[in-house]
Amino acid sequence: MIYVVGHKNPDTDSICSAIAYAELKKKLGIEAKPARQGDPNPETKFVLEKFNVELPEILTDGSNKKVILIDHSDVAQSLDNLDKAEIVEIIDHHKIGDITTPNPIFFLAMPVGCTATVVKTLYDYFEVEIDKKIAGILLSAILSDTVIFKSATTTEKDVKAAEELAEIAEVEDIRSLGIEIKSKLSAIDKLTAREIIKRDFKDFDMSGNRVGIGQIELVDLNIIKDRKEEIIRDMEKLKREGGYHSVFLMLTDIINEGTELLVVTDDPAIVKKAFGKNLDGNSIWLKKVMSRKKQVVPPLEKAFSY
Amino acid sequence: MIYVVGHKNPDTDSICSAIAYAELKKKLGIEAKPARQGDPNPETKFVLEKFNVELPEILTDGSNKKVILIDHSDVAQSLDNLDKAEIVEIIDHHKIGDITTPNPIFFLAMPVGCTATVVKTLYDYFEVEIDKKIAGILLSAILSDTVIFKSATTTEKDVKAAEELAEIAEVEDIRSLGIEIKSKLSAIDKLTAREIIKRDFKDFDMSGNRVGIGQIELVDLNIIKDRKEEIIRDMEKLKREGGYHSVFLMLTDIINEGTELLVVTDDPAIVKKAFGKNLDGNSIWLKKVMSRKKQVVPPLEKAFSY
pTM for the whole thing? Predict the structure, then answer.
């Protein structure tokens, strides 16, 4: 049995692409099942319920397992004891990470907005028909990851894949589905500060420094205005607990297309180096910045490497 | 301009796949040219002359260059100053190496016998016609890397790709072409011991130890019998000069399908751990072993990791 599993703190792409790719493998005659490294967020729950797809089982330890890694190629974002797992494939759309293998494997990364687009490409390559349900969750993953095609990572391939998937899933209004999906994560009133920070949080090793970057996408930044101080205090706490050099939280406004970046760091100059702007308190506004992967991680990695 | 370049100490696959992939890029409207990190071996020279294809220019330093890496994903096998290059794609068929990127890129590795098979797959995917000359060198690369389909790395995909390429290249007898190609590297009488060792030599970092593994494929091991002592003395010299923990040389008999492994090492027990056999002097016979990548590197990496 091969487990198809996305990254830690799973988002909609990570869970839906794992489900869809496991399904493709099964249709190609390979025993595979999807898994997830953590609880689904409210957006992912909504998507799975809407398209009537079962939540995959949980898997956090790779020991003695055959695994296909989805939506990541970094050890820090992968299963515990990854060195004791047999990695048989990697399917991703991020920068190439530090995972290595002792044997040749199939590794496909594409510079597109969503792993679901890569999975769609592979269905097409193998000429395997996509089920209606699977088309629905792949479409949802694309709308989620590309922020309804507004993220800088969005490519023509994502838009084309989404249109084709919408046809199969019989979704008539793609944009309405997108707003419905994205609004699920804007409901933050019932969340603790830590839940907001950790909603979609990733660890990075930047030139030997531990750096954590969270992101929350909101239909309106006013929703979160009154809670910023509380969140920053908790980011400071998380920084101490986790031994981080810096903890960032992207408050991304998906309608006005920009990000307020909250920052707690040992070295405030790193923000100026990376983004050309001085911190205003614990925050800077980054116009047009929507993508952690494409617009936040690369300048930070460069700034840390100096 | 994007440079398409294979690994250090280039073999036929590394040079021919770079040429063919640069050609595909050009046909897709992208400015690209092939390059090589070193001199072609006699086999590669023969192949390029036979199909009337120009030798690519040399490129050893990645500084300020846009590059597509072919047939490797390890820093040690790549361009000097790779951290100053912009890697735009990686096309490979080896184990996943330690190259990382700051941005998402196209990375395709397939567990097949030859990068040329991956390149052929991409021509087919983009529905681009393969020129007769290009088909000839891709076919030659497959015959070379899979040792005329005898290597353990050979897959059905390699055989199918070779058959389709032979048709385009108007090669009637694939096996005869294979033997003609492979015999070029059996001509060792004019080579120094160092040239024999370095013919196809790769550096590895195995659990912090520097390990070098060369391979020479011969139509008959008797050709090299009288020179073994001289070669082992020179391997000892290379080991000292390069600060290696171990230097291995695979003398691969492509007709009888097996490898005599010559060994100079700080720890002879590593050979027993890796291959279950004690050294006989400086040598062991490995029946059916033809592939460094699949049958020599993985057991050695495992042995070093204990």
Answer: 0.80
